[in-house]
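FORM 7B: Structural annotation worksheet

SECTION A. Query
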Amino acid sequence: MDLSRRDRAALAAGVAALLLFVLLQFVLFPLLDRRQRLEHGIQVREQALVEMRQMQERFRKLHRQNSSLSRQLARRDRNFSLFSFLEKMASATGIKQNIAYMKPSSVQGDDAVRQTTVEMKFKAISLKQLVSFLERIEAPEKLVAVRRIAIQENKKEKATLDVILQVISIDRMTGDGH
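SECTION B. Predicted structure
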């Protein structure tokens, strides 16, 4: 089988095209695809690393806060009672007789601490008395804070307020050996 020069050139071009196709399809494209997958994997892992570092920093911050909380609890009187503390502060500001009610409750925390809440209602107190009482009970060193406050004007006595407060504190669990 003798091929003309033209046929040989066409056959060579076809073989070259076929070789080029095979080279592209089975060598170059898979390499590029693998490279792209590897680059994507690197990006995903870099993002995961950034998230892990953020989580590590958050963990460290929470650990520092927990240590600080433990130190504050250790400094506070072992017999601290939120209910008694609020009664004392109401007496000190002269509004104990205006207490309509005090409702204590406690929510279980983790193994070492629990959250104690007291809801209080005052009838007919002045704004000055309320501010004085709030200044006394907002005691970060005693781990006491106001969670919620509702203030209404008293309808019976002019220039007085009816106030409902929710005060919260963190307490050490009893029997934990601290």
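SECTION C. Observations
The chain has a mean pLDDT of 88. The helical segments are 5-75, 82-92, 127-137.

SECTION D. Sign-off
Analyst initials: ____
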